């Protein structure tokens, strides 16, 4: 055992042993610069990461709500960190963009056929006036820039969902942290199904049986099946996490999904995204 004191290269603290007592920095030596040691650490990290990640994914899809319940009760070592899990799903969505997701075309916002014109048109009018550009130029610039904001802004959905869960289950007297963790599980589940699994399923069906496109057109039959699946999964997750009877579980799960889609996504998220992108054009 090395009894000589060390000066930490990161914070200059004096300490004994291999790790700084102040900042946790490790004392490196020649063995640590060995390529074999470096590769060994990489594989150790990779297998450790994969094990926790897949354990968490398995829990979410086979026992929805268990991951959040365990994590909030202090059972954490075998699971991936909640926010890291959500970020991994977003990264997979970025690497394999099978679906457009929540980022809509400029013309969708201003079209009277959809429900966004009431807030989009005043923003467009203001942007055209301030930037002194045409409507068509604004549309081109918006479509080119919006994708850079749309995916990072998905993080906003978590606290909004947590606030909604807090209001729906206020009588449970849980910490906001508990609702926040559960919101991460639910949004991770919803985005994984809608942006990764459903588009992948559609792609496989198209390749095997091209005529199956009619089943997916504008959501189609398969779209309704996916929504029903999500409702069942969310209901089981709510039942397990909050421990209410089935009547209130189903009722509040339905309310959550409706407000999640219509209020959090359609209004708040889209308004913030559209407003912000127009600011930076």
Layout of secondary structure:
Blueprint: E1 6-7, E2 14-15, H1 35-62, H2 66-72, H3 82-95, H4 106-110, H5 117-131, H6 135-150, H7 157-168, H8 176-208, H9 213-216, H10 220-242, H11 246-279
Antiparallel strand pairs: 1-2
Helix pairs in contact: 2-8, 3-8, 5-11, 6-11, 7-8, 7-11, 8-10, 10-11
Tell me what the structure shows.
68% of the residues lie in helices and 1% in strands. Strand 1 (6-7) and strand 2 (14-15) form a beta hairpin. Strands 1-2 form a two-stranded antiparallel sheet. The longest helix has 34 residues, at 246-279. The protein contains eleven helices and two strands; from the N terminus they run E-E-H-H-H-H-H-H-H-H-H-H-H. With 281 residues, the chain is mostly helical. The mean pLDDT is 86.
